[in-house]
Amino acid sequence: MARPRGGGDGRPRCAALLLGAAAALACAAAKSLDELGSVTSMQGLAAEMYRRQAGSGGAYMLLNSTGRVGSEGSPDDNAPVDAPLLAYADLPSPLTRDVVVLVPVADSVALMRRLAAEPALQQHVRGVLVDDTEPPPAYSCLGPFPGAEYAPYDAPGYAWNAAAGGAAFPSALTWLPAPALLLAPGLAFDARQRAAYNARGVRGTARRPGAAAPASPPGASSTRRRRAPVGPAAAQAPNRKQYHARLRLTMSASGAPNSSACVAAGSCKPLGGYSVWAALPPLPPQAPPAGAGGGGAGGGGGGLPIILVVAQMDGIDMFHDSIQGADAPLSGLVALLGALQVLRGAAGAGYTRRVVFLALAGEPWGYMGSRRLLWEASQGSNATAGLDLALVEQVIEVGQVGRLAASPAADGGGARLFAHAQRGPAWGNASAVVAALQAAAGCEAAVAQVKVRGASPANPGIPPSSLMSFLRAKPAIEGVVLAEFDEGFVNPFFSSRFDNAITLRPAGVAAAAAVLAGGVHRLAGGDPAALDINMTSLSAAVAGYLACVAAPAPGFACPAAAAVMAPDFTYDRDTRTRSYAPRGYVGVLPFLPPTQGPLGKANLPRFVWNVLALGTAAGAPGAACDPYDRPCADGLACAGWRGGAGDAGLGACVNASVRYVPSFSTRFACDDCGDLWAARWRVDDAADAWAAAAGWPPDPMWAESDWPAGVPELRLYLREARRVELAVLAAGFAVTAAAAVASVAARAAFEGHFKAAAPAKLNPLQALVRSLARSRMQMQQAQQLRRAGAAAPFGSGAAAAPRPAAAVVLRRGRVAPVLAAASGLHAAPAGSFARGFAASAAAAAPRRAAPRGRASRLAVRASWGAPVDFTPAKVVSNTRVAEQLHAVVVDVGDLAAGYTAGGQYMQIKVGEGKPGFFAIASPPDPNNQGLVEFLIKAQGEAAEALAGLGAGAEVAVSPVMGKGFPVDRIPPATTPTVLLFATGSGISPIKALIESGALEADKRSDVRLYYGTRDADHTAYAGAIPAWEAAGVKVVQVFSNGGAGEKYVQDVFAAAKGLGGGDGVGVVLCGQKEMCNAVKELVAAEGVEADKAAAAPGGATMAARALADPDADGWERSDFPIVCETCLGPNPYVRMQRIEFGGTCHISGRPYTVFRWRPGNDARYKKTIICQEVAKAKNVCQVCLFDLDYGLPVQVRDTALGIEREDIPESDVGKEFQLNEQIARGQTESSFGDGGRAGPSNDMLMRLQRTSPYYKRNQARLCSFFARGACTRGAECPYRHEMPVKDELSEQNIKDRYYGINDPVANKMLRRFTGGGDAPKLEPPEDKSITSLYVGGVTQEISEDDLRMPFSAYGELSGVRKVASRFCAFVQFRDRSAAEAAAEGLHNKLTVKGVRLRLMWGRQQPGRGGGGRGEYDPMRPVPAGAGGGGGGGGGGAGGLPPLPPGAAPLGYGGAAAFPSMDPAAMGAPIKRGPDGGPDGGEPGKRARAAGSGFGAPPPQPQPPQQQQAPPEQQQQQAAGGEQGS
Asked: Please, are residues 1401 and 1385 in contact by the beta-carbon 8 Å criterion?
């Protein structure tokens, strides 16, 4: 017996090779999955592979007149730093490989010194990551005597800051020769783990940070295992797996030697901000300065002497994104604002001196703010009009007062302030100022515990302060610095990011404000008896100001700021949270707005401006105002403007003299500085003579480098060893080869299995029987073919006929049969192709003869058409012919010969990008010079790339495609009237048709072109219109933004009418499909035949693009929907259906990718109903159309944020046009989280928004059969058996929900808030002894100090206790009133480190059933709106919101669990203890003993079926629970 073909000894070897390769790949995959951990989504996979930080934390490059500080950045944005991560403690010496160093902030100075001293180390340290999780003993960028060169005395060695003596204390800003980044707290922890992994990694046992160590097999010997280098040297070994840091900190000014050079090159901007001053009483308005804009101003000083009250606004740090400077300088600023609140009611005509409050910006940077203000005042500029230095007699500067504390009892007790004055005959005598302050401290009963003393004579003079600048300009000034220290201060974090609000004492700041107010009042000539200081209200005002300017949360979302301004914020797209944290950095000045409005000003100066304006205003507020659209009259200021729609955000005109003063180097000047894009900075020496006359030190000329968007950016990722990468590459080749061998072997085995082995020899009888059987089979097959209508493919000699080759080509979904054969083989008709082909293939089986031939093949090809061959071409010219439209001429060479008719098009691609379809705008060239012109609208990937190319750029072009407009159907003899319609860039093929002469317009009686564009600026080829009209084409231009009248082409055409019937009329169309369809309907109604209405095949617009590219028609492809957490459901594992182009968007009408899933076992199926472009434009969920950030209807969000309601197009073409415009402007990629306005209405937004998903919205729909009493399914019915309720929520509409117009759900929520039913409030408990608040949702990254910051602004704290295991914390106040103020101010507003936290009252002594008193549990939370706390109530845990459907509370974890997260539900045996928890638990055990002051975390909630939400929560669920998804 012959062996079958395809067998042999080679097949087992191939199989073994394949099994081995599969086993190796399986092991590698298992190891990779083990290292990846639990990954449930693509986002989770990306987060596991790359730990990322972007947008903040860089040590940006700063330049001055002598050099650079900060860190070096790469000038090339495409060359980021990429090197292994290594901790500073593991840094070897010498270092032989490039690394990124992770250094604790305490060791950062030591690293800087090493880099400066060791060139070899500097060469290999490619980047520095700073970890400041643990604050250093001391840190400041200002030395023991900041600004000693500006002092009016010579004592540079005097140490004003006693904490500056440590060796780790940086004395000045330092220059790092490598990019440096300050790590976020969460990323710092990961970076430390990865650096430790790199340092200790052992081959074979190295594991991912945080993974458990693998157990050694029993009996294994550790001596046989080969180990990699251990310790720092391991990080230098290239052949091991390591974590890398990829750092991008591109600085445009890299390589510039100083600020003068970079300003001249335009790669940097001057450091600067805005100082603010205001006069009390206001200046007389008889001579207002020009261009006052929205700010008030006065004329001359009115002749009154001036008392200047000064404070500073910002600090200095190498990482200026996180500067705080709470004690220095913000405590002095808050004391100044507090003093103004005291004086605003006492100031009157009795003042003999004018008080000017001045907040200076940029003082740590060489006293930039005071120097600039004095220079502006000497020049009589607009910003200082009325502030005459000659009238300034006294200056009081408020320094550090944030740590004001009681003195020792032996020294008299009480808090103590010190008045520092410059002594000597050359300076003004400040004894009167000191006496006034002492009198205020000694006489005011409300501040009797504060004493003011003169500073020690041992001091060389005044401490570092802005007063030094004023004494330099006018030595006769009587100046005093009021501070909490005498001979020196101890602030190890002076003016840095570590100088935070935790250690501030609001009571001390309020006392300093009271002393300052009393002293200024006396100096101004006021009656001391008329000054009534209410310390309670003053303390509350000071606490509110500190919460705004010194605490990261609430920051400028505080009530004091929200009442007077719309603060800016930063938006974290990863956590989808806003941050209003104040920034203590002065910033940069890209331009100088020409008016005094808030444009271009940071939050802090805007806040100070409004507080000063309202505090110094005379009389009642006047008319409503807007600083830009409704400015106030001259001499008045528009205070309290918050922006937004309607009158809600308007300010009020007040009679106040308040001004912004630009603060930047006196050696910089700006040309065209009123325009952000045209502003050009330059070095100017106009102030040099003035500075030399006053003896000023050289101006440092501080500037900051520019950088591109997305900088800084950091990624931490794992890179395999080089040998592993090579092994993977080799394995890939091996697997490919093995697959090829397996393919050949499998085919051979397949053929051998189905081929019968040839017999060695047939006897005559066997041969005769086989021949007769074969002849009978052939005759039967021939009869079947004849019955099917086909000629018999074989005759009597069919056995010897050659075998056919058959091919089936699938093209655009149609089957085209092709049968190729020789000598008499005929193809079956299309109707009987399947049967005929099967029969012929069977008949064509060859006889077995030597040599044995191969079996016939069936070749099948499925595609959209033949691949397009692209040919290189060059751009000849690129001319901008209209807004967003470019005429691009391309030399296509010989391909131009294929262009014969207008309306043809070509594909063009730039580089490796996606090709685009572009209609040819130039007429066919009879001389065939190879030049063709395209009209490009800069929209889409290919079009944007092409529009940005210049002459000489290379592109790739396809052959000319399409047949053009079939104008041969409308000859002049039979069609005297031709109507041409074009919109936008669709004019290009129409232009080619007209200019080619193929239309023969001169032989026709009426040729009209309806040309629609947005306006004249968006009209391409406007200059060619006269030539077209001269050729016989009447052009009717239609502007959609042309004012009154019809807006669109079809509307103008419909109004014109008058075709007189369809005979002799032809139509040529090129434009949006809505326009084409509308025009076709209009002309069809006039009797025009369909074959005479031709659309461009392959033009530049939607109706004319090739169907092979759905993206060209605006069809949307997407891989994952944009949905909210509620619609996605509670289970993290979701099976989702994706249907590409499965529906049309309910808003835009565009086809899009539909997603469908079931968000829970008891939920209904949900699917997306709008496309992603539409969803992004409104920042809403594709399913429920609720806002993604707040979980509220669009109408509620827009009302709260003051977003103006847009006009809604009614026609389909209008909707398409609006969506295209949004895409062109990039609005579909924006988020309302980036552009929302804050204000008082945001209080409503914060109270109404949900902090957790509301899964009730996903429940099944009502059963209509049950409502009719006809449902027979019973408990198995998938629909809800409830009776429908007919109310306003029953009439919901998708478009109303999306556009925010008459949405029933939104109307109900707005009525509840604005009407008598406000949102649930956090009612204080009846027990007045309760002073504790419960904070829920506390993550591991949030520390007790982080929680202390927002609460300390409301009063003194007894303690803060974090319970990490329960993700909560407890904050206890000393005073009940402070706790109530914190509960009211932070309820539904508390956000710490981007995490939204829940706030509830603690419960002092919860009662048992029947009102009895139970065990002591002071921190059990009281729910919002629950009222009293201590006494009654029995059972239940109504203090927590209900769990989501399907989730059950764990008995031992304190968190909701899904069925897939329960080991017992998944089949694992779990041994339970007597309390239902794991064996060994202690049921009922409290976290803390009774009476500890902090107590236990809140008890676990009851199961959903037993728990009932509070009435207020039920109302909120009812209002927000109905929606039309």
From this structure: no
In this predicted structure, the answer to whether residue 261 has a pLDDT above a threshold of 90 is yes
Inter-CA distances, 1453 with 1133, 1423, 1500, Å: 21, 21, 9
Helix ranges restricted to H, 929-1003: 941-947, 987-996
Distance CA 40, CA 21 (A): 28
In whole angstroms, give the CA distance from residue 581 to residue 132.
Answer: 18
Q: What is the pLDDT of residue 764?
A: 64
pLDDT in tens, 823-867: 233 333 333 333 332 333 333 333 333 333 333 333 322 223 346
Contact assessment for residue 665 and residue 362, using Cβ atoms and an 8 Å cutoff: no
Nearest Cα residue to 683 out of 701, 700, 696, 662: 701
CA angle in degrees (0–180, nearest 5) for 1123-1320-1178? 25
CB burial of residue 1251 (10 Å; 0-12, 13-18, 19+): middle
Are the C-beta atoms of 1375 and 1504 separated by less than 8 Å? no
Could you read off the pLDDT of 350-406 as tens digits, one per residue?
A: 788 999 999 999 998 889 999 999 999 999 888 898 888 899 999 999 998 888 865
pLDDT at 778: 67
Vertex 365: Cα angle to 362 and 366 (nearest 5): 110
Tokens of 177: 């020769």
* Residue 209 confidence class, pLDDT cut points 50, 70, 90: very low
State which amino acid sits at residue 224: R
DSSP run (H or E) holding 129: strand 125-131
Taking CA atoms, 1275 is separated from 1263, 1268, 1282, in Å, by: 12, 17, 13
Q: What is the pLDDT of residue 463?
A: 92
CA 1173 to mean position of chain CA atoms: 17
Q: Report which DSSP code applies to 58.
A: B
42 pLDDT band, cuts 50/70/90, is low
d(CA 546, CA 569): 18
Rounded Cα gap, residues 1189 and 1234, in angstroms: 11
Tokens of 367: 């006293």
Q: What does the pLDDT average to over 482-508?
A: 82
- Rounded to an integer, what distance in angstroms lies between the CA atom of residue 1086 and that of residue 1106? 29
Nearest by Cα to 797 from 775, 816, 776: 775
Q: Supply angle C-alpha 267, 272, 273, rounded to 5.
A: 135
The number of beta carbons lying within 10 Å of the beta carbon of residue 1468 is 8
| pLDDT greater than 70 at residue 93 | yes
List Cβ neighbours of 345 (8 Å cut-off, separation of 6 or more). 532
The whole-angstrom separation of Cα 112 and Cα 557 is 38
Element (H, E) at 1296: helix 1294-1299
- pLDDT, one tens digit per residue, over 1479-1499 is 443 333 333 333 333 333 333
Tell me if the bond preceding 329 is cis, omega within 30° of 0: yes
How far CA 395 is from CA of 351, 481, 516, 645, 646, in Å, comes to 17, 8, 12, 43, 43
d(C-alpha 643, C-alpha 627), whole Å = 10
- Compute the distance between CA of residue 371 and CA of residue 369 in angstroms, rounded to an integer: 5
Q: Give strand pairing partners of 704.
A: 62, 269
Backbone phi and psi for residue 1035, each to the nearest 5 degrees, phi listed first: -105, 125
Residue 826: predicted pLDDT? 32
| pLDDT over threshold 70, residue 1431 | no
> CA of 1229: how far to CAs of 883, 1113, 1207, 1238, in Å?
21, 19, 20, 21
| CB-based contacts of 67, cutoff 8 Å, min separation 6 | 175, 257, 258
Across 369-383, 578-592, 1270-1284, 1486-1500, which has the greatest mean pLDDT? Answer: 369-383
Residue 187: pLDDT band (50, 70, 90) is: confident
For residues 568 and 581, what is the distance between their CA atoms, to the nearest angstrom?
A: 10
Give the residue from 682, 606, 815, 708 showing the smallest Cα distance to 1238.
606
CB 404 within 8 A of CB 415: yes
